[in-house]
Design brief:
This protein has helices at 37-45, 86-91, 110-122, 130-137, 141-152, 156-174, 179-185, 191-202, 206-221, and strands at residues 18-19, 22-23, 56-59, 64-66, 80-83, 95-96. The protein is α+β, with helices and mostly antiparallel strands and 222 residues long. It folds into two domains: 28-96, DNA Methylphosphotriester Repair Domain, CATH 3.40.10; 110-221, Arc Repressor Mutant, subunit A (Orthogonal Bundle), CATH 1.10.10. The relative contact order is 0.11. Bound molecules: zinc ion. Zinc ion (ZN) binds next to loops.
């Protein structure tokens, strides 16, 4: 049984033309990332920087919007809505948070890299190689790897592994799918690779992780 059915509707992907690192004049990627409300909520609770720029947290009571990584006090869940596009969140009357400054970008290549990260998030289940990822952005693999590393400190491949493990952790918490099913669903090509990468990033096995999470929920209920 899958507990989570609500997958946000994915808008038709708006192609952003990129030629040799040049792109159309647009402030942010508008590709809607394929994350559920619950997943986005998890990211903001964890102040997860990996998802900055892919979506914005808007707080209805304060009319302020933030990056996922913002360290300000967490809003109540009922007061939160998520936007994928900075123009839309501003059009809805929200002001940028002074602390995390979601409207400020520090480098000209960040937008390109964000587009690639959106692509990774939306294609976790596919067996991606660098060539595919570079093609999706219209960049050479060499150039992509260089700017990606500059912006994130990771290669696209290790970033993708982190996103896959996040997705797997979410499924371990919220579904009763088996480890095997989850490993494949998030794009690992073999169970052994799934276990290896999961342990590397979470410092425990998928089974241990699920057990811990269930215990944490039980303790909360007590
Ligand atoms: Zn903020």
């Amino acid at each position: 049984m899958k507990l989570e059915k609500e997958i946000p509707k994915v808008l038709p992907v708006k192609q952003i033309k990129i030629n040799n690192g040049r792109m159309r004049n647009r402030r942010y990627a508008m590709t809607e990332v394929n994350l559920t409300f619950e997943e986005m909520w998890e990211k903001i609770m964890a102040c997860d920087q990996k998802y900055d720029g892919l979506f914005f947290t808007a707080v209805k009571t304060t009319k302020i919007y933030c990056r996922p990584s913002c360290r300000s006090r967490k809003p109540k869940k009922v007061n939160v809505e998520f936007y994928f596009d900075i123009n839309e969140v501003e059009a809805a009357g929200y002001r940028a948070c002074k602390r995390c400054q979601p409207e400020v970008e520090y480098s000209p290549t960040i937008e390109l890299v964000r587009n690639v990260i959106s692509y990774l998030v939306n294609h976790t289940a596919k067996p991606l190689v660098l060539r595919d990822i570079a093609d999706s952005a219209g960049l050479s693999p060499f150039y992509l790897e260089r700017i990606f590393k500059q912006e994130t400190g990771d290669t696209p491949r290790t970033y993708l592994e982190k996103i896959r493990v996040d997705k797997a952790a979410h499924l371990l918490r919220t579904t009763d799918q088996t480890n095997l099913e989850i490993g494949y669903e998030v794009g690992f090509q073999s169970p052994s690779n799934f276990y290896r990468v999961f342990r590397l990033l979470k410092d425990c096995s998928p089974r241990e992780y699920r057990k811990r999470m269930m215990e944490a929920v039980r303790n909360e209920l007590d």
